Amino acid sequence: MVMILMNARVRDRAPDPPASSEQVEEVLRRGPGRPKGSSAPSVAKVMREEVAGIKKEMFPHLPPELWNRLTAGVSDYVKHVATSLNEAYSTGIEAKVVEILDVTLPDAALALGRDSMEAFAAQERGFRGSCICCHEDGCTGVLEYQGDVAKSKVKTRIGMIDLKRAYYHGSCGHSVSPLDRLIGLDGTHDVMPSLQDTVAWLAASMSFPETVKVLDTFCPSKFSLKAVETITATIAAQVQEAQQEEIQAVEDDPSAAARRDGDLVPGVVCVGTDGGFISVRDHTHPTKEFKLAVLGSLCPVDFKPQERVAEDEDEREKVKLLEKSYVGHFAGPETLYRHVMTEFFRRGYHKVQTLHGFGDGGCWVLPRIKDLLQEGQELSLVLDWWHAKERIGEVAVLHGHGTTDTSEWKTAARSALWDGRLDDFFASLSKTIADAEARADSESQKALQGYYEYFDKRRHLLRYRECRERGLPIGSGAIEGGIKFIGKDRLDGSGMRWNIAGGEKILQLRSVKYSDRWDELAKKRSDKRRQRYDNARTLWDKAA
């Protein structure tokens, strides 16, 4: 160990001890500029005053160095394209048309774009003087300019580029490249922010291996499977952070969120909730339930009160929700509905006259929807018709034991419920219990009594005739479709087994994507990234 420490290279690379207050003041007195001993920057000479009829004097604010690189790139581009076209025409253009249009010209244009990006980055390299104050929380050190350091193979939408940017390091052990902070390179991915968004968008739509294949096919920048997974996790974490901030803002000031000007707007807001299961690997059970809510504005339709049970299958086709929002979580109902409440206010649904909720008979489903109701709004709740039909079918089997009575009783019971004849429906249920008792079938009697209590407890939700007359949905097709589309299509593929945190991230991304919020939250991430840079710049420039 002593021999190693005596090595000059090791000593040179070892961090210096923390700077004293006198040393910090000395560095700050140096002020901005190039490091001591370096030559002063010279003003570049314009190498080409005019290119293709475009004169430098037309762009007085464009730095000469950048003009020179741009014009050189354009010159090389024209030379390359002209050479390729000249060769094609000399040997027979028809045989080269497809190659030129499909490969030669697009590749040349991408190369020009990459060269322009590198030129611009070299011009705006992030140099902020010979020293800057450290931006890390609680640190009072100073970072000194170490020179312009290259960052190679930065992935962009038009391929990989090399950046040469100012690099600062201090005796406090911290370092930074201001340009990296400005353009959103966090040192983990070295991928431009817009391309990170594209990667996460694709991964929210398809499996990670499929995402890699799509990127390999259509994007000049190449990605490994691990890179796709980590980029997606990063974007998802930022989305979750943004959504949590929205939730907190509503909970901190609920009166502001619920504020509305004027009377309620005529219309119907629909809310449905349900759950689905996927395979997981970090849970006490091999599967884990995710909970999903859908919110949307009801598109008005006409239902005929006289429609019979045989025609009720069309109801799913008639009901349409507009401007749908999806909210999904693997956590419990409390977490889900904190988020649903926020989305309810964000969409302005607290300003709409009627709140209509639908769902199955789960204890956490319909009762929670009532918590969304705001002053003056009308509440309408209904038990999912398809769920009720299934329960009636189960009662029919217990009652008829597979005989013709099974089908007849089922049809009659459904018809009574469909037409709103609740007295007839419950009388029919009571008769099944009495029949089971008469034939001394205690097991069926107990089960039938349970079904009676189930429906009786939800009697106020059996409003199928009333809802049909008002054009309100009676089935939860919208939420059941969401369970499949938002959750299972991506999370329950063949052979997939998720850790819950990873599944939660994908569920959040898909909910955002199919709620048409992707661009909105991407802009919020961009604004926050810029704000972090501005805050750091304020600290850096204290050394100026």
Commentary on this structure:
The chain is built from 21 helices and eleven strands. It has 544 residues and is α+β, with helices and mostly antiparallel strands. It folds into four domains: 80 residues; 155 residues, no CATH class; 171 residues, 2-Layer Sandwich (Nucleotidyltransferase, domain 5); 74 residues. The strands form three sheets. It has a five-stranded mixed sheet with strand order 9-8-7-10-11. A four-stranded antiparallel sheet has the order 3-4-5-6. Strands 1-2 form a two-stranded antiparallel ribbon. Helix 7 crosses helix 9, helix 9 packs across helix 20 and helix 15 packs antiparallel against helix 16.
Key terms:
single chain; 544 residues; alpha+beta; Nucleotidyltransferase, domain 5; 4 domains; five-stranded mixed β-sheet
State the total count of DSSP E strands: 11
Level-2 CATH architecture of the largest domain: 2-Layer Sandwich
CATH class of the largest domain: Alpha Beta
Into how many domains do the coordinates divide?
4
> The biggest beta sheet, please?
5 strands, mixed
Strand content: 15-25%
Question: What low-confidence regions span 5 or more consecutive residues with pLDDT below 50?
Answer: 1-21, 23-40, 303-314
Q: Total number of helical segments?
A: 21
**Helix-and-strand structural type:** alpha+beta
State the CATH topology of the largest domain: Nucleotidyltransferase, domain 5
Mean pLDDT figure: 87
C-alpha geometry: elongated
Rg over CA atoms: 33 Å
Helix content: 40-55%
How would you write the strand order of the largest sheet? 9-8-7-10-11
Distance N to C terminus: 41 Å
